[in-house]
Amino acid sequence: MAEVFLRRLSRWQAEQQRESVADIYVEAYEGDAGAEYRDRQGFLHVFENTVQRPDFDMVVADGAGSMVGCLYGYRAARSGDWWEGFRGVLPPEVEERTASGRVFILTELMVVPAYRRQGVSERLRTLLFVRHATDLVVAVIKRDDNLGREVLRSWGWTKLGEFDPVGPGSTAPPRRGETETRATPNGLVWEGWTRPMP
Predict the structure, then answer these.
(1) What is the distance between the alpha carbons of residues 196 and 91, in angstroms, rounded to a whole number?
(2) Which of 38, 49, 44, 72 is nearest to 174 (CA)?
(3) CB neighbours of 152 closer than 8 A, spacing ≥ 6?
């Protein structure tokens, strides 16, 4: 296997390399069920929106002359809009950390199949989080995303709760599998996973 090099991308670089990121997206999710949300153009639309979020940060892995993985996210808005659709009562410490700007949202982790189980995702995570002064990291995955759940558990994360889809006009950012118009397959539910920052 070729050596893998990591690098951080600025917002501008992420926008310039969006087609390479979309290539990773298509390859990383090839063959999975639920291909509706893996539409390349839909992904690019959501990615372009995510890049504009406050404190957006991204790291990528390069191997054998091309991008083979990436991890990115942003700081949750203090308004708490991000938690819309959360089932049940949000723990007070999560509300407090959100209101004080101390929550980082891990938006997407992708590693192409040929580079999985080689420590690439852990290296991406370490590089991304090294410069963030937040107390809590949150990721939301589809309830049937077994690979995502496996990765989060291996990182020592715990399940926080579940999210229902939110309706049109919501100010919450789209979650994986959801478009800007809030079109979601019936019954789609997300799980929220969390871990205090190291």
Answers:
(1) 14
(2) 49
(3) 139, 141, 193
Instruction: Check whether 123 has a pLDDT greater than 90.
Output: yes
CA angle 183, 186, 189 (to 5 degrees): 90
Q: Which two tokens stand for residue 191?
A: 């799980």
Beta bridge partners of 141: 191
The pLDDT of residue 84: 84
pLDDT digits (tens, 9 = 90+) for 165-195: 765 555 555 555 554 444 445 556 677 888 8
Residues in the chain: 198
- The answer to whether 162 touches 192, Cβ cutoff 8 Å, is yes
User: pLDDT value at position 16?
Assistant: 94
Contacts of 28 (CB under 8 A, 6+ apart): 69, 110, 111, 112, 113
- Residue 170, number of CB atoms within 10 A of its CB: 14
Neighbours of 189 (CB within 10 A): 14
* Token pair listed for 163: 């999210």
Closest CA to 50 of 80, 31, 77: 77
Residue 91 φ/ψ, nearest 5 degrees: -55, 140
